Amino acid sequence: MKERDELRASESQFKHSTKDLKDSTCALKERLISCSNGGDIAKKPTQSLIYVTQLRRSLSQQVKPKPEPTASSVLEKTSSGQAKAEINEMRSLSPPSLSSSRKPNEKELIELDCVSVIEGSAEVGKESQDEKQWKEMKLHLDDLPGILAQLSKIKLTALVVSTTSAGFALAPGPFDLPCLLLTLVGTGLASCAANPINQFFEVPFDSNMNGTKNRPLVRGQISPLLAVSFATCCAVPGVALLAWGVNPLMGALVAFNIFLYTCCYTPLKRISFANTWFGAVVGAIPPIRGWTAATGSLKAGTFLLGGILYSWQFPHFNALSWGLREDYPPGGYCMMSVMHLALCRCVALRHGLALVGLSTAAPLLDFTTWTFPIISLRISLYISYLGFRFYTQANQKSSRRLFFCSLWHLPLLLLLLLTCKQPQGVKRDQGEPRQ
């Protein structure tokens, strides 16, 4: 109790000393004003300005009284000792001697009044800005579904699920609805797992690009731990559901696709422009998975579907990356549209023509009837024509037309494949004698 009383006495003495300091500053200001009217004039007014500034800073830092301690007696002794030392230090501070040489300017007198106000407003503004940024980073449960949808790239996930369902529908054999539902759920979970891991690795680089700087991890809307936990909670049940609910080959393909996307394609984007070919392989696997889920095996029709998806991605992505090629260097990405402009246009044209050849090979493999290459020839030649325009002109207009054409070309081509699908047992019935 004795130490506490001493501490309270020191605090009251501290308050009186701060009051004396305030009075001294007011007296100094009055003296300066009187000097301007013909009294003693300072020889160096900048010294008085520096002194008053230091005095007000010490006031702003030391005027706050210390709270009443609730700790042990040892802490009370140390706090009382610090308070006494600060009081002695403040008492030892004395104003410099003023000499008379010239009048201070009105501007200098105004600065004396405004220094502490500016410093205090700057500190308050900084605290309010920090508080605002902290509020923006708070995670609300109402915003969580939208953040997770952006994190999993819901549009890309929908494309993966749709191409997987197309591969399942084009596979020979009876239609199994429960198997299709398990396949779609597992594929969606696997895609939702791969995309957050990709964004987790690319946070420092995505923050430098205009197209990716608003991603949830870059803006701090969700923590990296929560993003990785979400990816794990999607990957483990997704792979397990496909391996045990559909077939082991399907589970192995999904696990390989996640590994290829996160551990090969993602780091390769900053090493070599060959990442585009790795990304095309990743995009070609979903229809193969759908075929495998329905049949449990890999056949010629499986690789034909994968080849169509593989070739389609080059006109699609090369035209898209051409319009964004100025955005990749700040992120450090080695894209074909940045490193090799001529190769980017040539590859888009080459794989546009490859779509015509793959459509012709479908009836040769007894995958579709001969109606399919006849009908699909027009749309395949059209995307090849736009690829040729992109190759020769190489401007924003030609790349944009090729990109938008690829958006409707793929679903229309898959629909034609499904419509012209080869009926089951046609070749076998023609080659086998009737019983």
From TrEMBL:
Which Gene Ontology BP annotations are present?
Answer: cytochrome complex assembly; heme A biosynthetic process
Using the UniProt record, name the top-level EC class of this enzyme in a single word: transferase
Major place of residence: mitochondrion
- The answer to whether UniProt assigns keyword Endoplasmic reticulum to this entry is no
Q: Which domain of life is it from?
A: Eukaryota
Question: Its GO CC terms?
Answer: mitochondrial membrane
Compositional bias segments (type: Polar residues) = 70-82
- Family matches, as InterPro entries: Protohaem_IX_farnesylTrfase, Protohaem_IX_farnesylTrfase_mt, UbiA_prenyltransferase, UbiA_sf
Q: Which UniProt keywords apply?
A: Heme biosynthesis, Membrane, Mitochondrion, Transferase, Transit peptide, Transmembrane, Transmembrane helix
Q: Which residues form a coiled coil?
A: none
EC numbers for this chain: 2.5.1.-
Q: Where is this region: Disordered?
A: 1-21, 58-104
- UniProt GO molecular function: protoheme IX farnesyltransferase activity
Query: According to its record, how does it sit in the membrane?
Result: Multi-pass membrane protein
Q: Where does this polypeptide localize? A: Mitochondrion membrane
Low complexity biased stretches:
91-102
Q: Which reaction does it catalyse?
A: heme b + (2E,6E)-farnesyl diphosphate + H2O = Fe(II)-heme o + diphosphate
Transmembrane domains' residue ranges: 222-243, 249-268, 370-390, 402-419
Q: To which protein family does this belong?
A: Belongs to the ubiA prenyltransferase family.
Q: What does this protein do?
A: Converts protoheme IX and farnesyl diphosphate to heme O.
| NCBIfam families cross-referenced by the UniProt entry | cyoE_ctaB (TIGR01473)
The protein's name is Protoheme IX farnesyltransferase, mitochondrial
State the species of origin.
Trichechus manatus latirostris
Q: Which gene encodes it?
A: LOC101355500
